[in-house]
Specification:
It holds the Pfam family CarboxypepD_reg. The protein contains five helices and 50 strands. The protein is mainly beta.
Length: 821
């Protein structure tokens, strides 16, 4: 007997309640002590000093371990401190900085330090410069961090360029898609907040975003329960620059270069922090002119007759991109912070192309088609966020977030087709045009709560609701007797209404000084409805899912650590894939969507082993109903090719990741990252079962050289071997970039001369070779060539004292909770 959806939902919520209560009881029974350091900072009158800075430093090299800003009481406390020798330093504007004597922490020890007394000084503090050289790549327990601002070869490039050169990341510019460790379903985050934009729009935005505005990029492959379950491959979190210095400060940069056309970009970042107020913002602009080239071939058998279609496309494109944001944080009290953020971007892709299609039958020239088409693809976005964080105690806080997000896409394309016979005689002309108008609106509300249960268990719980609505107005028209006539078979107005709610509970448990456990459970319930005016309920789904997560970390000794994790995730079909659009690459090639797409569920097991700075990671993932990018389908009678996304039966991926930083000497350091994948896809094509198995290798390296007189050189390269994408295989590709940096004296900024794609090897060559299914295609795509750019960057304003406010937005809080100290 079948159980109703309502009963299933109740049963799932019951499971989650039992899970939460069980872990709560477990947390109360595990009471191993944690290492803790606490004390007080006062003035000469024994009064606490609000907003003073307190830093926990290693006594061996004074390196920063943790820091915080004091409440009005002057009391401070550091928890979960590893064994070792430390000291505490405190400083505040107008006072002399003071230090405690060094002390030793042993496992489970509670240390109460003597009061630190800050003495006023009438002398202006001199500049204190702390230099910290982060590596380009930092591997952590659940993510790989790419420190973009420390990369010379990233200067003048875009965010998409940086991603494309990142370990385990594959960018499919043809289909505007991104995959990680061989898996699709990547979710984009900006400063810890999900962007919710369609993947195609996100790729276009990243293609225009100046890397000079980015601090770092985090590749999060095993998200915990407090992250949305969306995204089989995990999250890509882009952290924009935001200064924590008091006063007014910022930076600006300008880039000018040439590749297949002129490349220019500019970025400015501003920050003002004073008292209870922090105002920040940035604005960036870029324009890139390129001449992409595309060649494709396909072969179709119809009985004894073989048709071959050769297509050449020469494009002239200009990509214009603008990004901006402005934010305000106001500290209502020592425990409460109210924040607001407004963001927006504009991306315009303008292209005109000359396409030549040559069609042969049994190797005899049959038809020539000359196609001139003009395309504009404009994406606009604006969004607003209001967030409130209240700290009930030092161990208990509540964060509230409300977001409104609006996207709009306008993509008109004109096609002017001229037909000739095999002898070159003119036959006829056909003028057509297509249009696509897509507004997308989202409301997101979230509440996150964190507290400590006893001395060794932390609880995180939350609720979230999301409402998405969008319309997709597509049209296709033909010019007939000087009048544009709409083709109703290729035109429609689609409407989508999607809602999902989520609840999660997660526990961080310190079993002993060497073992920690993070376990959580998330439940999401989704309703989704897609239809047109003529056809209702094309898609009408209601489903709930449980998503457990488990992380276990065991520190064997100072040099060796083992981590084991399990996660379950979901990938919902993208909006633009569910509501079909029509894009004609040629008169006999159509790219469209697929309303019958089903959500995909993935299960992943991962083991990490770290030895000093070296990482070895092995994972296995199975995606059921995996969503793959545009796959070819050929009608052998009409020679018509249709490409659309579809579900596979499943996809299995085994991934091995090795990360190895090496310091050769004082002036030469290197980072090597290797990702080896074994992939198997099982699908149905035209009623036939298809199984493809393939292995591929991704190698990424960065070589950094520090030279005299303020010069430094960086060379970065990556190689991607043959890669499986659905039923298509992409041939090897890679690139080599070299950058030279000159730091100017007396804080006059720096110049970077950057050469990208120097060997002109960044070429995409997907192909499909399944003759038993009458499917043979081959494509060559060169989106850009060798490019040389010069970038000038300079910081300005107060950078002498840092005063990081002890608050987070809700999304930044989620990000911080999964970082390993």
């Amino acid at each position: 007997m079948q159980v109703s959806a309502c009963h299933k939902q109740k049963r799932a919520l019951g499971y989650m309640l039992v899970f939460t209560i069980s872990f709560f009881m477990l947390g109360k029974t595990i009471c191993q002590a944690q290492s803790r350091v606490h004390g007080k900072v006062v003035d000469k009158n024994d009064h606490g000093i609000a907003n003073a800075n307190v830093l926990l430093l290693r006594s061996t090299d004074s390196s920063l371990v943790k820091g915080l800003v004091l409440p009005a009481s002057g009391e401070y406390q550091f928890e979960n401190i590893a064994e070792g020798r430390y000291l505490v330093m405190s400083t505040f504007t107008g006072f002399k900085q003071v230090y405690t004597p060094s002390f030793t922490i042993n496992g489970g020890q509670q240390v109460r330090l003597e009061k630190l007394i800050l003495a006023e000084t009438a002398v202006q503090l001199g500049a204190v410069t702390v230099t910290s050289r982060k590596p380009v790549f930092e591997q952590k327990i659940d993510r790989l961090v790419i420190n973009v601002e420390n990369s010379i070869t990233a200067a003048g490039n875009t965010a998409l360029d940086v991603l494309e050169r990142s370990p385990g990341v594959t960018v499919d510019r043809q289909n505007n898609a991104v995959s990680m460790n061989g898996k699709d379903g990547v979710v984009l985050m900006m400063n810890g907040k999900i962007s919710y934009m369609p993947v195609a729009a996100a790729v276009q935005m990243l293609a225009g975003m100046n890397a000079g505005n980015i601090e770092k990029i985090e590749l999060i492959t095993t998200p915990p329960a407090n992250f949305d379950a969306e995204g089989n491959a995990g999250y890509i979190n882009i952290i924009l620059k935001n200064s924590e210095n008091y006063g007014t400060n910022g930076s600006y940069s300008a880039t000018l270069g040439y590749g297949q056309g002129v490349v220019d970009a500019a970025t400015v970042v501003l920050n003002h922090r004073s008292g209870k107020i922090n105002v920040f913002g940035d604005l960036s602009f870029s324009e890139v002119r390129t001449t992409p080239y595309i060649y494709s071939y396909r072969e179709i058998s119809n009985g004894d007759e073989i048709t071959k279609i050769f297509a050449n496309t020469d494009r002239h494109a200009t990509v214009t991109n603008g990004n901006g944001r402005v934010g305000l944080d106001y500290q209502l009290s020592s425990r409460t912070v109210l924040g607001g953020l407004l963001t927006g971007y504009y991306n315009k892709y303008a292209m005109n192309a000359l396409n030549t299609n040559t069609i042969t039958t049994d190797d005899q020239l049959d038809t020539l088609i000359s196609i001139r088409n003009n395309e504009k693809n404009r994406w606009k976005n604006y969004s607003g966020n209001i967030n409130l964080q209240h700290n009930f105690t030092k161990d208990e806080k509540l964060t509230l977030n409300l977001d409104y997000i609006r996207y709009s896409n306008n993509q008109p394309v004109e096609y002017f087709n001229s037909y000739y016979d095999g002898a070159g005689n003119f036959l006829f002309e056909e003028d057509t045009r297509s249009g696509k108008l897509t507004p997308i609106t989202l409301w997101v509300a979230a509440a996150d709560y964190a507290t400590t249960l006893g001395k060794n268990v932390q609880l995180e719980a939350g609720l979230k609701g999301t409402k998405s609505t969008f319309t997709n107005d597509i049209s296709f028209e033909r010019l007939q007797q000087n009048t544009w006539t709409k083709d109703p078979t290729a035109s429609a107005l689609y409407s989508l209404d999607e809602k999902y709610g989520a609840a999660y509970a997660s526990f961080n448990i310190t079993v002993d000084k060497k073992t920690t456990i993070k376990a959580g459970l998330r439940y999401e319930y989704t309703t989704s409805n897609l239809g047109t005016v003529e056809v209702k309920d094309i898609v009408d789904r209601k489903y709930g899912n449980l998503f457990p997560t488990l992380f276990i970390s065991r520190k064997i000794n100072e040099d060796n650590t083992v981590n084991v994790s399990y996660t379950r995730r979901i990938t919902r079909p993208p909006f633009n894939a569910l509501a079909p659009f029509t894009y004609y690459g040629s008169p006999n090639t159509l790219i469209t969507g697929n309303p019958s797409l089903q959500p995909a569920i993935s299960n992943m097991v991962k083991v990490d082993y770290t030895f000093k700075k070296f990482l070895f990671s092995l994972s296995f993932t199975q995606d059921d109903d995996a969503i793959t990018n545009f796959q070819p389908h050929i009608d052998s009678v009409t020679n018509f090719l249709v490409l659309y996304p579809e579900n596979l039966v499943n996809a299995r991926v085994i991934a091995l990741v090795v990360s190895a930083p090496v310091d050769v000497n004082k002036w030469w350091s290197m980072q090597w990252n290797l990702t080896a994948l074994g992939r198997q896809t099982n699908g149905i094509y035209q009623g036939e079962s298809v199984r493809l198995q393939h292995g591929n290798l991704n190698i990424n390296t960065v070589q950094k050289f520090k030279l005299p007189k303020g010069f430094s050189v960086e060379a970065s390269a990556f190689y991607q071997s043959r890669n499986l994408n659905g039923i298509s295989v992409t041939k090897p590709f890679g690139t080599l970039d070299i950058g030279i940096k000159k730091t100017l004296p007396r804080n006059k900024g720096s110049f970077v001369l950057n050469g990208a794609n120097l060997l002109k090897t960044l070429v995409f060559r997907p192909e499909t070779n399944l003759p038993e299914l009458n499917l043979r295609t081959r494509t060559y795509l060169r989106f850009f060539g060798r490019t040389v750019k010069l970038t000038y960057t300079r910081t300005f304003g107060n950078d002498k004292l840092k005063g990081k406010r002890n608050r987070d937005t809700g999304a930044e809080d989620e990000k911080g909770r999964v970082q390993t100290q």
